[in-house]
Amino acid sequence: MKHFTYLIAVMVLLAASQTAQGAVLDSCDQWASYCSGSYCVYNAVWGATGSWSQCINASSCTQWTVTATHPGNGIKSYPNSSYEAINGTTVGQLSSCSSSVSTSPPSGGTYNLSYDFWAPIEVMVWLKWQGAIGPWGSYVTTATIGGRSYDVYKNGYPGFLLQSQTSGGTFDLKAIMDYCVNQGWLSTGGNVEKIQCGYEIVEASNTTFKMNSYSVSYSTGGGSTTTTASSTSTTTTASSTSTTSGGGFCGTCNWYGGEIPVCCNTNTGWGWENSQSCIGCQECINAGQSCSNCSNCGSTTTTTASSTSTTTTAASTSTTTTAASTSTTTTAASTSTTTTASSTSTTSGGGSCDCGTCSWYGSSIPMCCIDVGGWGWQDGGCNRSCVSESICPNN
User: Fold this and answer.
1) DSSP 3-state assignment of 4?
2) Does the predicted model carry a pTM greater than 0.85?
3) Are 385 and 157 in contact (CB under 8 A)?
4) Within 10 A of 49 (CB to CB), how many other CB atoms are there?
5) In the structure, what pLDDT confidence band is assigned to residue 328 with cuts at 50, 70 and 90?
6) pLDDT in tens, 235-263
7) Which member of 70, 266, 273, 281 lies 3.0 to 4.6 Å from 294 by CB, making a disulfide possible if both were Cys?
8) Using 50, 70 and 90 to split pLDDT, how confident is the model at 203?
């Protein structure tokens, strides 16, 4: 009997050891994350209040379980899987972009299951929701997009609520981007930074949220691209440089809640200067949006720019381009990407709009000047969504 009891104890310990070894991320830290190849997984407890807990156990970046306890109202967290290999591709360069997801939502709690992507303005797509939670903004219309019917809301950023709620399926995200472009909410030159899918949790009591699988695929005008990497290394270096017009920007436009650089050499429509998308000052004014320093359009100005260098080392990168009758496959050992971003200071409507930026899981989000907790809507003439310093991961 003693030998039998000992054998059971050993088997239990071995099973526990195998479970721990099988998890790529097992943590109760609010900012816990793990990246592998094209995907990352984030615990992302950014708005927690009172006594709370949220633990994530992930077997991969696209398969995980979160157990959470959060009291009260307001969004507390967004545990999610994030596809990040698309960064550097603009909306206009995409010929297709779709995602498939499978989840096991809980029967209790208050939450929504949603996509969240930045292009560079935030766009949300709600697949399923439960409890006292509603969309941000006002109802605009009901539209059929990519073969599915959505209720469309808008206030600062657009939100799409699926009329037939579901816990999984395949979704045409490029069709949603195109709809936003046609409405003037996104530009074709906007960079698609990442595509996330997860749960916005408002209230939970030892509630379990599951992501069973998640994938994103996209193609550009030249063909389809799929990237698989085993590890990612990122180095960021900030520097200050002086730039003269033709390479700099002449102001900023608060384009429906997102801050867009104003072109120096383009007055109408959208342009491309200094390796970035920009908007003509007259285009900004015609749209009824707030425009700072637009009187400087076409003149010589000096701006301050920051340089961010990101290097990704991939185990294998496969790019396939298909022409009319020619198929070519190229495999590279590593890929290096460098991104240069500009920074401007803006004061509008009597209130300061330049209170810094928050690096929100790879996206640059304006920091609130007034709100001290959670997300806010900056007034004082700023007219944009922002994040408070207290919940910024790198505050």
Assistant:
1) helix
2) no
3) yes
4) 13
5) very low
6) 223 333 332 333 345 778 776 555 677 87
7) 281
8) very high
- Residue 266 has which token pair? 């383009």
Burial class of residue 27, CB neighbours in 10 A (0-12, 13-18, 19+):
middle
Q: Residue written as tokens 């102001």?
A: 251
Query: What is the structure's pLDDT at 107?
Result: 94
Displacement of CA 131 from its chain's centroid (Å)? 24
Order of strands, sheet of 241-244, starting from the edge strand that comes earlier in the sequence:
241-244, 302-312, 335-343
Reduce the DSSP state of residue 294 to 3 states and report it: helix
Helices (H) and strands (E) in the chain, counts: 3, 33
Using DSSP's 3-state secondary structure scheme, residue 75 falls into coil
CA distance 349 to 382: 7
- Interior/surface letters 117-141, b for 16+ CB within 10 angstroms, e for the rest: bbbbbbbbbbbbbbeebebbeeeee
φ, ψ dihedrals at 116, nearest 5°: -145, 115
**Residue 289 exposure: Cα atoms within 13 Å on the Cβ side:** 25
Q: Can you read off the two tokens belonging to residue 332?
A: 């590279």
- Count of residues in the chain: 395
Burial of 106 (0-12, 13-18, 19+ CB in 10 A): middle
- The answer to whether the peptide bond before residue 158 is cis (omega within 30 degrees of 0) is no
pLDDT of residue 280: 75
| Averaged pLDDT, 310-331 | 35
**Which residue, among 162, 158, 114, 117, has the nearest Cα to 139 in the 3D structure?**
158
Token representation of residue 348: 């509008």
DSSP 8-state secondary structure symbol assigned to residue 16: H
- Provide the 10 A C-beta neighbour count for residue 20: 10
- Listing DSSP states for 360-392 in one string gives ETTEEEEBPSS--SSEEEETTTT-EEEE-GGG-
What element of type H or E holds 15?
A: helix 2-22
Q: Which two tokens stand for residue 202?
A: 């408002």
Residue 296: CB atoms within 10 Å: 16
pLDDT digits (tens, 9 = 90+) for 36-91: 999 999 999 999 988 999 999 999 999 999 999 999 889 999 999 999 999 999 99
